[in-house]
Design goal:
- The structure is a homodimer of 306-residue chains.
- With 306 residues, chain A is α/β, with parallel strands linked by helices.
- The first copy, chain A, contains ten helices and 13 strands.
- Chain A has two domains: 128 residues, ATPase, nucleotide binding domain (Nucleotidyltransferase, domain 5), CATH 3.30.420.40; 158 residues, ATPase, nucleotide binding domain (Nucleotidyltransferase, domain 5).
- In chain A, strands 3-2-1-4-8 form a five-stranded mixed β-sheet, with helices on both faces. In chain A, strands 11-10-9-12-13 form a five-stranded mixed β-sheet, with helices on both faces. A three-stranded antiparallel β-sheet of chain A has the order 5-6-7, covered by helices on one side.
- In chain A, 52% of the residues are buried.
- Chains A and B meet through β10, α7 and α9 of A and β10, α7 and α9 of B.
Chain lengths: 306, 306
């Protein structure tokens, strides 16, 4: 019998998303839960297993037709053994053998990786990074995560921890970062810092979406605001561009919706600071798959590992 | 007939080194010329061809027994076509098809690459990077060059320009760098800047070797001097360590002889600033092959491409 379906799971600090995909990675059904509605780690794991069962019964898919379950999690993972080291934004997760626990419950192969890596895989497979060999994918959110495609393959590094671009040090005595160090990129352009800066300029009720909309209408303060964020990000990226001679940098996450003002500023800073050949090569583009990139990446992981 | 010999060439701004190697990469003979003694590009190319002839006749090696000629040059190269884009420290070299020119003269296959890449290849093949999968090799000299081993293979990037770690920006308004930008790593720890800083402390006649010797005897000013350089270098490297989850950083070139004071400071800065898992993984070690690393790398290039 041909195995025809994949269940993909994107476990986030806010939402638990699940999707049923066919072999061609077309989505057949999706569910969304509030992650915090699960009171314990066990109930969350049970919730994932329950979603798998629910997809199978509602779509009359037999267990034999299921290729596997792919899960993206927001933290460091041993992708080979399926061990989740810890999840900074979901309490109670430390050294959890999620793959084994779920394989017992679901009776199908389970694959687990870090969410930024899966977003990277998805953007390279079918999104904005599709035609490029060497790519850095960034997600700009509360944290600044990332993943690297090197010679057309997801690059992992010795501990599957490669791609962490958020903790690039920008200044010896910069603002304190959540990681404990000072002056990390994330401490400058993580959502919390960006919104804090924005409120000083635009008042206490402004949202990032509103500043992006203003910038879209060429509001000078909004354009300047995003240009400043782009300059900081471009400064950090220019060193990476010189080092890795990348074909493209793909930027996703909330802030990536800021548009031209942000992207042009990033490009300008890279062309000033990176070496000429490398600066000329690299394209800086917005992610193509939107909020479902992690879910799609989880499905791709099952497909390419099966 | 088994091809048994390789000629390797390390073309530097100061010296032109040539070596005759056997298939096992044992050196049979070496020559050293002053690069400036060649009055023109043509005479330099003729000098290389002459060295090949000279090795063959002095060691009674027939042309048929020569696997090829490998050349490392101090600048950007298209390694596939053997086109030298330019050599910042050797006048008159711009878009020179060195491979073709030398193949006509020598009648054997010629391979050309950037010297920092060949040093990296050599350190990974038989030096300090031998047992590591993902490595950054640095050369600290007038310039700060580098090369990357990713998944056990020399990583080139889209234009064969990967590895340029010297132009990592450390500060927006830092000292002007030779590349035109401001605040590059090279503008802080290139030999010229280091010696300029040293003379302010140790007087106008001090050499870097002398400061290293003083540090070896625990002279507090010398230890502090190298610790400061190490802190700057470690600051830049910590971002790369978080990004690439490297197994090792191999440091060669003149300053690498500074010893413990330099290396411990680099390690300290990385363990403060890089992410914990990545900082724990990475070893920071001195290059193992010394001044002949480039020459050995050129021989290895011929061996693995033949």
């Amino acid at each position: 019998m041909v195995k025809k379906f994949i269940v993909a799971v994107d476990l986030g600090g806010t939402n638990l998303k699940c999707g049923l995909f066919d072999r061609n990675l077309k989505v057949k059904a999706k569910t969304l839960f509030n992650t915090k509605s699960f009171r314990s780690r066990e109930s969350l794991i049970q919730g994932i297993a329950g979603s798998v069962d629910c997809f199978l019964s509602s779509h009359r898919v037999s267990l034999n037709a299921l290729l596997g379950v792919g899960i993206g999690v927001p933290g460091p993972v041993d992708a080979r053994s399926g061990l989740v080291h810890f999840l900074p934004n979901i309490p109670g997760w430390k050294e959890v053998g999620l793959k084994k626990l779920l394989e017992i419950k679901t009776r199908v192969p389970v694959f687990i990786d870090n969410d930024a890596k899966l977003m990277t895989l998805a953007e390279h497979y079918s999104g904005a990074a599709k035609k490029y060999e060497n790519v850095l994918c960034l997600t700009l959110g509360t944290g600044v995560g990332g993943g690297l495609i090197i010679n057309n393959v997801l690059y992992r590094g010795g501990d599957n921890a490669a791609g962490e671009v958020g903790h690039f040090p920008l200044s010896e005595n910069g603002p304190r970062c959540g990681c404990g160090a000072r002056g990390c990129l994330e401490a400058y352009i993580g959502n919390n810092k960006i919104i804090q800066d924005a409120r000083k300029i635009f008042g206490p009720r402004i949202t990032l979406e509103e500043i992006s909309a203003l910038a879209g209408k060429n509001d000078p303060r909004a354009v300047e605001f995003w240009a400043k964020a782009g300059k900081t990000l471009g400064f950090a990226l220019s060193g990476i561009v010189s080092l890795l001679n990348l074909d493209a940098i793909v930027i996703g996450g909330g802030i990536s919706k800021a548009g031209k003002a942000l992207f042009e500023s990033i490009r300008r800073e890279i062309s000033c600071r990176a070496m000429a050949v490398q600066a000329k090569r690299v394209k800086v583009v917005r992610a193509g798959l939107g909020v479902d990139a992690g879910l799609i990446g989880a499905a791709i992981m099952v497909k390419i590992n099966s």
